[in-house]
Design a protein that fits this description.
By secondary structure, the chain is of the alpha+beta class. The strands form eleven sheets. Strands 4, 5, 6, 7, 8 and 10 form a six-stranded antiparallel sheet that branches. The protein has a six-stranded antiparallel sheet with strand order 17-27-28-33-30-31. The relative contact order is 0.08. The model has no long low-confidence stretch (mean pLDDT 95).
């Protein structure tokens, strides 16, 4: 049926769940497991990921007992079950069983050790064997002229390995200052705790991993695979060779990922057998920038491909061959997605084997941090990447890789501390969905309370006072993800992924371009060079087309160098008429000589067409507005408005989000990419309401979104507006009546609700979390007021406005329920005019558990919100 996803919402049919939370296992009793599953199912959740990390008997009898129970309960409820693919975090330990049974398959590294000597000294010898620890072997011994503490002469590098006898190097030391490099195969010197992980560069290690974790699950549950047993979840595998997000080649103290056949592949990538002679340039400056850039690029190119192919690619292939899927993510944080250490080398390559693109946002993104750096419970965070880059990068892979079927999963909400409630969760849902996420992995359900492991936890054994309204968040997320799945994303531009540029020299990351584009309502996808080099990338009618996504321009963030095959491909794109925009560096650190723009221009015949431009970042938006057709345009500046265009059959959906937590955004939007002559309607997914839209004669839409608000704009010539039961919001004239009087106030904890106890210390609206009132209270406060009007308030429907609230509000007016608000604006439309006489008002405000049991680490890194009904409480008309 055409437009089925829209009709499902119009007709209020049950939707498939788009939430799949982490469900932590500790070996709880059967009754507790079944009850927690029932709680989740009742809240609109249709799948779970069993987090085995805290379980005491993973892969043992206790694990199979619990999994039997959960699968049975899931089968009864029509739910799906995924399994975290390891006992320990991050994925890659295989419950430490591979390390115990096949230690030869654990991680191997290449270490650099050196000594300095000055010649001439004929007949010299060097005690290489004393540089080795147990189980270490020499890969190469090399010498080079030393010019400084971290600099050598590349053209002096000499391979002396064949002069090594019984651990002693015999060499006539020439005149001058020399450095002797001893390159060692080792299992030591990496990130702590990674010694027992499998080697991600060794396909035999990945096979052993599958034999240890996946095969036993298949042996027991083969009949459920592809049915109730949906697949496996892989969490943050990495190289682990260095404890840092900044693990760039050139860090002299860093060991490097290695395997015994890697050198042969490096030689092939280098185009000859000389790579081994140049190995020290992976750590040291050799004075030849071009040579060094090519060498380091070759190393990163080879190991990143192997990580994605031989490890995660093999895991994904196994899952698909057995009728299940593999989802999860690698570490993206602070740009580590292009690096070693905590990273996996190259985000797009590492994720190719997964059945959906993926990322996590656990504590890293907040409404107030949109640029620069800020601290967190775990590290300093680069908000430029987290806020503008991370979700967009992941969703781009979901769009561009046909194997992902348009799906991007996001582990979300975790590690923010108990300060995080449904208000922030709603904002985070909008943040990721408006960038393309359409499957959410809430972090987390724990059956232990209190649980110090990175709260919040949603049900928390009934102790979370916001749990009774959690279903409103899940219903909202399900509606949004439902509309943003199964169709096709539309964007105006492609932005080049910068991994290869980073490996080759000076560069600027892709998020530097994504940020101003997003602030100007110009959506784009981040595109990897691998995709642009593939046959899937074509230029048609001056537009770049990949997997059905079509882009009017390719934007290239500043790069000192790019791979030679890609430069040739750019020239072909330019000849085909694709607009290419090269961004100049934002700092004065420019390179000498010709720019990449000049290089590409020399290779092609497109110079006269004007489709190659080199611009400063500040000129990017205006250039695109003048040169390519844009999907959405806004009148004036609306920097906090995000727009995501998605096509469902003949319907064009535009998801609009105001990311400003304090200020409303009001503007007029035009939609050149929408069907011509079709008036739009609004869909408010939080309230589940279809609303009439103010569509002007010149084809513009007046839009106003309050802080935290989102809305769909829907265009479709075949969509029956009458079926949509279009409503009109109450039209406000500016009239306002403060509601004052004597308030009656009572409190209830989550355990006591709905039984309230009068609270004489609270006299009405205001912050209760202050000394002398209720600074340690978490729960619900009920405010009751009866006010009297001598004359009617206005002639039409009115709005009850609660002003500022922290943080959930439920209201009753004249004894009738008005609804619940989990985020601003805290307004309730009243069903009719407010007449003269007495009017009872009841408001219940629920805060988070932060006041009662703030986490000593997670919560201390954020300013704590006030609590209560702050007001002013008014009638608006």
């Amino acid at each position: 049926m055409p437009l089925q996803r829209l009709y499902d919402l119009v007709d209020r049919k049950p939707l498939p769940s788009s939430l799949c939370p982490l469900f932590w296992q500790r070996g709880e009793p059967e009754a507790v497991l079944r009850d927690e599953m029932a709680r989740m199912h009742g809240a609109g959740i249709g799948a779970v990921i069993l987090e085995s990390r805290p379980h005491p008997d993973f892969l043992g009898p206790g694990w199979w007992r619990d999994l039997d129970i959960i699968l049975d309960e899931a089968r009864r409820r029509g739910m799906k079950v995924w399994v975290f693919d390891d006992k320990y975090f991050p994925s890659g330990f295989a419950a430490k069983k591979v390390a115990a049974e096949h230690p030869e398959l654990t991680k191997i590294f290449l270490a650099e050790r050196h000594l300095d000597a000055t010649g001439p000294l004929p007949g010299a010898s060097f005690l290489v064997k004393h540089w080795l620890e147990k189980d270490e072997t020499v890969v190469r011994v090399l010498a080079a002229r030393r010019t400084g503490h971290t600099t050598i002469l590349a053209d002096s590098l000499t391979d002396l390995t064949n002069r090594l006898h019984d651990g002693i190097l015999y060499w006539d030391l020439p005149e001058g200052a020399w450095r002797l490099f001893i390159l060692v195969r080792t299992r030591h010197g990496a990130e702590g705790g990674m010694e027992e992980q499998i080697n991600p560069l060794d396909p035999a290690a990945a096979r052993a991993y599958l034999d240890t974790v996946h095969e036993p699950h298949y042996a027991r549950y083969a009949a459920e695979f592809g049915r109730t047993f949906a697949g496996f979840f892989t969490d943050e595998p990495r190289f682990g060779n260095f404890p840092s997000y900044e693990a760039h080649l050139g860090e002299t103290s860093m060991v490097l990922p290695w395997c015994d056949d890697l050198l042969a592949e490096l030689n092939t990538g280098w185009g000859g057998a000389a790579f081994a002679t140049l190995l020290p340039l992976l750590w040291y400056d050799g004075g030849d920038a071009e040579l060094q850039a090519r060498l380091r690029f070759t190393y990163m190119d080879v190991v990143s491909r192997r990580f994605g192919r031989d490890y995660l690619g093999q895991v994904g292939d196994w899952c698909r061959a057995h009728g299940v899927r593999n989802i999860g993510h690698v570490i993206e944080d602070n740009g580590a997605h292009t690096r070693l250490g905590y990273g996996a080398g190259h985000f797009f390559r590492s994720m190719r084997g997964f059945d959906a693109s993926g990322l996590d946002i656990v504590h890293q993104v907040l409404p107030e941090f949109t640029g620069g750096w800020h601290n967190s419970p775990f590290s300093e965070l680069n908000a430029e990447f987290f806020y503008w880059g991370m979700a967009k990068m992941a969703a781009s892979l979901g769009h561009l890789d046909p194997a992902k079927h348009g799906t991007t999963v996001c582990e979300l909400y975790g590690a923010y501390g108990w300060q995080e409630g449904l208000r922030l969760m709603k904002w985070l849902t909008d943040h990721v969905c408006v960038r393309g996420v359409n499957l959410i992995i809430p972090h987390a359900f724990s059956m232990q309370f209190p649980d110090a492991d990175n709260p919040p936890h949603f049900y928390a054994g009934g102790h979370n006072p916001q749990w009774r309204h959690f279903h409103l968040l899940t219903a909202y997320a399900n509606r949004v993800c439902h509309l943003l799945s199964g169709g096709r994303h539309v964007a105006s531009v492609a932005v080049l992924y910068h991994a290869e540029a980073e490996w080759l020299g000076r560069y600027e990351p892709f998020e530097t371009a994504v940020k101003p584009l997003a602030q100007a309502q110009i959506d784009g996808d981040v595109v990897a060079i691998d995709d642009l080099l593939s046959a899937a990338a074509q230029v048609t009618d001056r537009r770049l087309v990949i997997n059905g996504e079509s882009f009017g321009a390719l934007v290239l963030p500043y790069a000192e160098r790019l791979p030679e095959p890609f430069l040739a491909r750019l020239a072909a794109f330019a000849d085909a008429g694709l607009p290419l925009v090269f961004l100049q560096p934002s700092t004065a650190a420019t390179t000498a000589g010709a720019t990449l723009t000049d290089t590409v221009r020399r290779r092609c015949t497109a110079a006269g067409r004007g489709n190659l431009r080199e611009l400063p970042l500040a000129g990017l938006v205006e250039h695109l507005r003048q040169t390519i057709p844009l999907d959405v345009t806004a009148a004036g500046r609306s920097e906090t408005l995000r727009v995501y265009h998605y096509i469902q059959d003949t319907a064009h959906l535009y998801f609009l989000v105001n990311e400003d937590p304090r200020q409303a955004v009001a503007t007029r939007l035009a939609f050149p990419g929408a069907p011509a002559g079709v008036p739009p309607v609004f869909y408010d997914a939080l309230a589940d309401r279809w609303l009439a839209a103010d569509w002007t004669a010149d084809g513009q839409l007046q839009v106003r979104l309050e802080p935290y608000e989102s809305r769909f704009v829907v265009f479709d010539p075949g969509f029956p507006a009458a079926r949509a039961r279009l409503e009109r919001p109450v039209a406000l004239t500016g009239a306002a009546l403060p509601l004052t009087g004597i308030w009656r106030v009572a409190t209830a904890t989550a355990e006591q609700y709905p039984e309230f106890t009068p609270e004489p210390r609270l006299r009405g609206p205001g912050n209760w979390a202050v000394p002398g009132l209720l600074p340690a209270f978490s729960g619900t406060v009920r405010y009751e007021l009866e006010f009297v009007l001598d004359t009617p308030f206005g002639a039409g429907p009115a709005v009850l406005d609660l002003g500022e609230v922290y943080e959930l509000a439920e209201a009753w007016f004249d004894g009738r329920p008005c609804g619940v608000r989990i985020a601003p604006p805290y307004r309730f439309e009243l069903p009719g005019p407010v007449g003269a006489g007495a009017h009872p008002l009841r408001i219940e405000v629920t805060n988070t558990l932060a006041k009662q049991c703030a986490h000593p680490v997670n919560d201390r890194f954020r300013a704590q919100d006030p609590a209560g009904l702050l007001g002013p409480v008014r009638l608006l008309g």
